[in-house]
Design goal:
GO terms for molecular function: hydrolase activity. This is Phosphohydrolase. Keywords: Hydrolase. With 186 residues, this protein is mainly alpha-helical. The protein has a single domain, classed as Hypothetical protein af1432, CATH 1.10.3210.10. Helices cover 51% and strands 0% of the residues. The chain has 8 helices and no strands. The radius of gyration is 19 Å and the shape is elongated. The protein starts with 14 loop residues before the first helix and ends in a 9-residue tail after the last helix.
């Protein structure tokens, strides 16, 4: 364990305190990909009745995107699109988007943030909901991108017999993508 700052309120911190804090905080931030990958693995074993568990679904969506020669950022978005399921079953896309926000483009961020309502087209009507809820986003420049993501990578990624790459294939991509691209949160 390293040295610690001595202030009790942030407003009382000094340059010397930040000389202690910043290097340690940077090391912690650098380990973020490890924590995200560990958190993703919490989805293993939880299927909620789906043909495969949520971890395999995530791997399968990323496998499909990689096989389709999508860029690394897109593949990582496919891998992490449902990572929020463990913490926010009812708002998992927003959690996934919050994790990805500093690292991905606006179009990929929008796609992750809105994928669930687009996926709803495939089953909302069985639950008494409007399957066309996604249409409220028709004017978005990212509508077609998100529809395509669901149609090609999210929707077909529930196949127990499909080839699915192991997490080790995607780990280096996650490490390369999870380098901050923006300093201001949206």
């Amino acid at each position: 364990m390293g040295k610690t700052a001595t202030f009790t309120r942030m407003q009382d911190s000094t340059k010397e305190d930040w000389d202690i804090i910043y290097p340690q905080a940077a090391r912690f931030a650098d380990a973020l990909p490890n924590r995200v990958l560990s958190h993703l693995q919490l989805l293993a074993g939880e299927s909620s009745g789906y043909p495969i568990d949520r971890f395999q679904h995530s791997l399968q969506a990323a496998t499909l995107a990689l096989k389709d020669r999508r860029d690394e950022e897109y593949v990582v978005c496919a891998l992490l699109h449902d990572i929020g399921d463990t913490l926010g079953s009812y708002n998992h896309p927003e959690i996934a988007a919050a994790i990805l926000r500093p690292f991905v483009s606006e179009e990929n961020l929008w796609m992750v943030r809105h994928h669930a309502v687009f996926q709803g087209y495939n089953y909302f009507h069985f639950l008494g909901l409007d399957r066309n809820m996604r249409d409220r986003f028709k004017d978005s420049p990212y509508y077609e991108r998100t529809k395509e993501f669901v149609d090609q990578f999210d929707n077909p990624a529930f196949d127990a017999g499909a080839e699915t790459y192991p997490l080790s294939v995607f780990e280096p991509m996650v490490r390369r993508v999870m380098v901050p691209k923006r300093s201001n949160p949206r």
